[in-house]
Batch of 3 targets.
Target 1
Amino acid sequence: MEGKGILGAYTILEQKSVLSNYYLGLKNVFPSFFKKYESIFFQTLGFGALMNAFPVVFSITLREYKGFRVEDVTKVFNEISYFDFEQWARVGTGTAAENDAADDLISELRDAYSEDGSKTSIRV
């Protein structure tokens, strides 16, 4: 929907591309979660949590890489490639569970990237 939210300034086509790149970036870094028959990414809790975390991922990616290409999103998620999405299956259901799961992901992202916009981890 144009005019609302963090993607409000973008066209519907651009919004579609951004969301596609978001999931493709996730797939690049966490392929095992896409191979599962009932992937948490596509269940209500996982989808809700990922959408709740999206504004943070979007902002970090734009700040760090000046774009939101698949490779940009992949680089952001690579910084937290150790993240265990399996834990989301144990948080329950409903809005509160989605928010808790999103908060866990956001916390890991913020730990990987400082508040002033610079990465806190060392590039090797």
Target 2
Amino acid sequence: MAFAIIHHFPDGTKEQYDRSVEISHGGPDVLPPGQLFHAAGAEDGGWTVIAVYETEAAWVTFRDTVLMPSLQAGIEGAFTTPPEERTLELTTLLQQ
């Protein structure tokens, strides 16, 4: 079942997002293995990222083997605080 993760970074900026994605994804137009959809933008005084993965296990693998180690090592110019996080299992995922 597809799985969505929504991260909101209070006071986050596009520049911080760009730097984070450059390191964690390997570039601005790259989706990590298992990620089906990625969108991001400014919202409510910060920056929000929405990602959809094939499964929750795909998200956990990316989080634990790529994202968290990268953030814990420190990425110069990236987000400086953990995000507010929401997740949900998707019953519907339409794609063109």
Target 3
Amino acid sequence: MSTIAIIGAGAVGGALAQKLALRSRVRQIRLIDPDVRVAEGKALDIQQSSPVEPFSARLTAAADYTAAAGADAIVLADLLATGEIAGEGGLALVRQIAAVEPRAPFVFAGGGQRELMARSAGELHVSARRLVGSAPLALESALRACTAALVDASPVDVSLSVAGVPPAEAVIAWQSATAYNQPIERVLPAHQIASLSARLPALWPPSPFTLASAGARISEALASGSRRRYTCFAVLDVPGIGRNLVAAVPVEIMKGGVGRTLDPALSRHERTQFERGLR
């Protein structure tokens, strides 16, 4: 059983701690925020729900970011005082944590942390395999829910993926999408497919609970390993375009980091849009 540190006890961080606790797949959850009294209150509230929602995870709170040392995965969420971790403050925070914890992967759980990921790789020289952004998985979840409503299905009956740079340069891989194990175009009219594509920018960023759910899945996978492939932000080196580029692509996650980034299955038009977002 593993330990996950969550930096930030805001809306996303608090929901993520609750989600991890209820899934009972980690041993310890550390909720870290300079506003430690509120973080302690959230951790205690979640812990006290364990008799009702049986789980065995232990939740603690801390004010010092160095409390993330020794964790199997470190999630960057949102601070109570300033919101989503990003910008110069976010970069300084990553630098500080990386100095005391040189091994654990970072999960960027917010919708506005793509630039922070790129700067962490390019300026701080954090290994690309240690940097994963979970927000595209949340976007993919929202799209599956919208698509399922149109075809009168459960979201589990819909399979689709996104790629690229949301909101403007993200693409839906309709060519490989399915519903009821059939190609999506057999169950969804072309005008509705076009409508969903046009709606994509409005779904970004996903809501805090959806971001938290995606962050929980990815942090668990990083802490324990997984056989699944996930759509995540990953750091890419693309010949002819650039280095330390961050985009949503399918990734294979192993314990401790990204095992492999995969080429998304896109049509010619979709690939053109995907590559435009990288430039």
